[in-house]
Structures
1.
Amino acid sequence: MVAWGAATLAFFLLYLSGDPVDLLLPLDASPEARAELRRAYGFDDPLYVQYGRYLWKLAHGDFGVSLRSQEPALPLVLGRMPATLQLAGAGLLFALLLGIPAGVLAALKKGSFLELLVMVLALLGQSIPVYFLGLVLIMVFGLKLHWLPISGYGTLRHLILPTVTVGTFVTASIARLTRNGVLQELRSDYVRTARAKGLHERVVVYKHALRNAAIPVVTIVGLQLGALLSGAVITETIFAWPGMGRFVLLAVEQGDFPVVQASVIVFALMLSLVNLAVDLAYLWLDPRVRYA
Amino acid sequence: MQKRWWVFLAAAFLGLAFARGDTLVIAQGVDATTLDPVNHQETPTGNVTANIFDNFYRRLPDGSYEPWLGEAKALDDLTWELSIKPGIKFHNGEELTAEVLKFNFDRLLDPKKPLKYSTYFKPIKKVEVTGKYTLKVYTEKPFPLFLTRLTYLWVVPKAYIEEKGADYFANHPVGTGPYKFVRWVKDQEIVLEANPDYWAGKPKVKRVVFRPIPEASSRVVELLTGGVDIITNLSPEAVPTVEGSGVAEVRSVPSIRNIFIILDVKGEGPLHDPKVRLALNYAVDKEAIVKHVLGGFGVPVGCPLNPYMFGYDEELCKPFPYDPEKAKKLLAEAGYPNGFTFSMSAPSGRYLNDRQVAEAVVGQLKQVGVKVDLRIKEWSSYVKQILNRKLDTDAWMIGWGNAQFDADNTLFTLLYGGTVEGGPPQTKFSYWKDPEFDKYVLEAQQTVDQEKRKELYKKALERVRQGAPWIFLHQQKDIYGVAKRVKWQPRPDELLWAFDMELVK
């Protein structure tokens, strides 16, 4: 269902922009060459015929052939997925490892300078555009300090700057949400009860309060994964990261329809998998959901 | 624990200082789309394949060509004889023979499976092997562009493709060229290694790596930090940074691309009058545009051609001098003493500072009383308007590359008005009708004698000079950032041919 919706949307949005033959050939190509190419790709058929053929092929697992490289579109897209997943995964890990402790800290030290610092940094992290952050990191850690490679793929060191770039926004949102969540939970009755029982403060915070505060955080992580993936488009371009985002961007610019369609479908399926994972995480975190 | 961290950090820093050594790294904006040398349309792809393959004729840095894998000779208007240098071998040991060359032509001419370069060889009717190293090529009509088109004939191996298939070949190419293919990791790198047995001599650079880096500023930083040796399409804004770096420098070369404004799209109104069009040419200060808008990276030119192209004429291509008084006088003579208004389209981000160039032209025309309603267009919709002749303005700015290095692909394609009876109709880019001009360019298409063709183009250029169908602006320069250790001068055809390059200590 999701795949069909995404496929249909991808199809019609692309075809609204007109057929890509004009962009595929150089300006001085002959009208015959254009007509030939149009025929070869079936762009001269009525739209409904093209749509039907497209769905029929999709149903048989045929995503078409890239207009640029003449290779099947789906493997081209899937081949670039590991790099994107690696980047998104590293970004998420970075965000969780940094955002949750920072949020808890801010909540526990409410009113202190530390809280102010965390909140200001989080605000900055949420408002700074990805491409700007990426360029600043390149300037500082690549050009000035010569510490880290600024483009390319392969080693752990290549992963550091792109991870920070793509993960900063999510880190900031997680930090703010965690702080708010923990603060709210700490004010609630069960925490008072737990404290009254004489439980150690650390147990109160980490075992009780944080677990309940985690539900909105998990939700936001699920939602942010979309942001993470779209941030990957820009990040991959800046750092020459060989992922899907950069590949799709180029395909859009070049009017490579089959590649764009295949990646829209892959992205849609990926996001629905993430939503499923988020729902499953609720079950684990909140017994009420399990029994309902 | 702590100790281990230090070791890790030290290793990380040492890793940074790794030397490229004998490897030359070239960064382009995008990856290759295929490694089949005759089935692509993009310069970045051609730059990689040019190092793996040889073309039958080779382009020289001044735009002319010379025999490379062999020679071609016109026997009559419709027949060419090709002879191949004996003893040339592909990287897999296969020998280059007439049979192999015929396979190359047949592959390009196969109507069932057209390749992107097929269009360059369309007039060929049939190819016949006449000896181990000789063959004859028959054409349907006189084909004066045959020799220049032979620079597009990048020769591929027959046995290898027949055995492994075209798809495998496109990812694991085997050629006769100076570099052997090592590996291609998509969107990361293409690695080539010197072919020590190259028939034209041993390449000086041992290893060449092509890396796609899409973001322009990342390319600059890689160059400055020593990650790459050559970057393409350096923006004029980045020039001072690169020049001041101490490790790299800026090198540029006038390109094959001219920038100009096509006038009189609607065939009526003031622009219909040649006097008005001449006035506009005198009213634009090309020198100032090149100096201030392009940072010096351009050469003013006064005709549709540039010095690399066959048919260029120095006298007839001199830039129109900047003379606003003369412009005003011509406008008054044409009946527009107080100027007039017209509309103009221009792209943004397609050519070197294109939008700013258009704005400068608008500003200068205002000085002589001509007001321009400038409309900046997004490239893909602009292309559609151009191709479908649906431009909504009276004039449009465009750049023309002419990879044929021959007047035909500019004069005919952009200016032929379709006035010759029985001849082809007006081309889709032409908004000018000059019967004499049309006659000359059409005759040149049928003339194999190159001296005669040159005369015809001279006459055609005289008509252009008088009719001024465009505002002629400049020839663009290509700008590269190059590490100081690389001995190499950029070429007008944008080719990054490592056989031309050398690393110095």
2.
Amino acid sequence: MQIAVLQATTLGRRAVVRTARQPANVVFPLIFPMLLLAVNAGGLKAETQLPGFPTNSFLAFALAVPFVQGALLATVNANVEFARDIQTGFLNRLALTPVRGLVLLVGQLGGLLTIALVQALFYLVVGVAFGVRLETGVAGALLLLLLEAMIALAFASFGCWAALRTGSTEAVQGLFPVFFVFLFLSSMNIPRNLIETDWFRWVATINPVSYLIEAVRSLVIADWHWETIGLGFGVATAMSLVGFALASRALIERMART
Amino acid sequence: MREVLNVAKGVAWRQVHLFFTNPSFLLPSLLFPLFFFTAFVGGLSRIREVPGFNFPLGYTAFQFVFVLLQSAAFSGVFTGFGIARDFETGFMRRLMLAAPKRSGIVLGYTISALVRWLTVISVVTAVAFLAQMKIGGGGVDLFGLYLLGLLLSIAGTMWSAGVAMRLRSQQAFPVMQMPVFILLFFAPVYVPLNLLEGWIHGVATVNPITPLLEEGRGLISGDPTRTLLSFAIALGLVGGFALWAARGLKRAEAAG
């Protein structure tokens, strides 16, 4: 057990260090969501005048989006590196060592979680610096970080699956637009009950990303709304389990081939 | 001149062929504008109820103009990605050796960007009409609107070609993409300029894309108000970035 923890920590640290050594992979996931937040917070401020809008600060309303978007970006970047490991044969060489497949997966996901948490802290600090006050206070902020870890894990497990299944950096990069579609067709810019177009409201309702965003948003603007928070954690957990199961299966197949 | 055109024809044909035969080039170009249009129109249509939102044709036409300009600018950026890719694979070096007039290379890429944009905007326009977009302007107004997009597409191509020819690497993608993204989204995308508040209002007021967007919305509703300024800006962008691309070509030639 102790050896497995050591192996997972080493692989996780490798994933973190490798990301940290590529400035584009560090700066882009930090800056791009903040840029989009700035654009939307400025451009959509007028939306707070709609009857029934839950807050008078669009910045607080939209702060949930970078948390989900940042997890997406971190996932894509880290799993592109994972796919590169497969392409360059690093995974094949690793398969010759006593490292177990499960440990390899946990190490990869652990590294990604660390990156996602650093990003989440950055978004939180920026939000607070620009005047956002969490309705749930410090305890809410801690729960927010936990939720962010779960969200990152959910996306990361699917990213790992794609990397292992295809072994192609381009295929993993191709996931970004797919994730982005899920993000934009959610309640990221407007509460679901205020969406006027029926089909869009329906898509946003069946889109799991809506529930992730709404859970984060709830912690920022709505005090302890346990149903929304629970739904967010539930969706993230379910996605993680499905993704992890798919990734584990793909890993077995990948190892068997080598 | 004939040599320039021959080179341009060859380069344009190759790029257009690549665009239509490779789904990984065709789909993002086509899907991204469609997806922005759908997400904005579907999700944010209630914005028209905000006090002070006085665009007469509704939110579909309001967002259509933004997507038209955005797709135009990004058709240029995507073409720049292709140029950078050609540098990395070594194709550009062979092309430069073979081309008797190298300015034809830039012209060829520009033509392919226009074909790319015209394809994309035809689909987006069809979808907009399916979504019951209203039009207030006449034929001349609509011609003006598409001409504005065409000029922006050329400007976008020249900008990204200049970057690609200087950096000659796919690492240049963010350098091409980010400034265009920032310029486009720091304009009045979701609501008219008068409804923007604070710093974004200040930025949007001096953003050169804002007059283009306002003119586009004026043209589609048959009430253009900033025609001279917007076309002057568009032509200025084309001229300035053409110079930028030409100097980039010189640098690429000097680099060997």
